[in-house]
Amino acid sequence: NQIEELRAGQIECLYSLEYFFIAQNRIRKIDAFSFENLSLLRTLDLSNNLLETLDTYAFFGLYSLRSLILFSNRLRVLGDFIFQATPQIEELVMVSNRLERLGNLSFVGCS
What is the pTM of this model? Predict the structure, then answer.
């Protein structure tokens, strides 16, 4: 696949989705609120994409998310409050990125 962007509202009809594997694409950008209606989503695999930054509200609405897989992207910075809407997260995989900085409040809201 060669998906380059996830836009807000683009996948809102998939509200019953529990597992979303969108790895090995060319995703560079995830709009704020792109996953807003996916409150049942438990696993999100965005590995092997071209993500460099994540909007503060990129994961907004993912209240049931347990596993977020972001390995092998180009992420450099995790901003403040990026995980505020993922209180149930148990697994966060960020291997093989280019992380230089974590915001002081990146994990506010996580349990």
Answer: 0.91
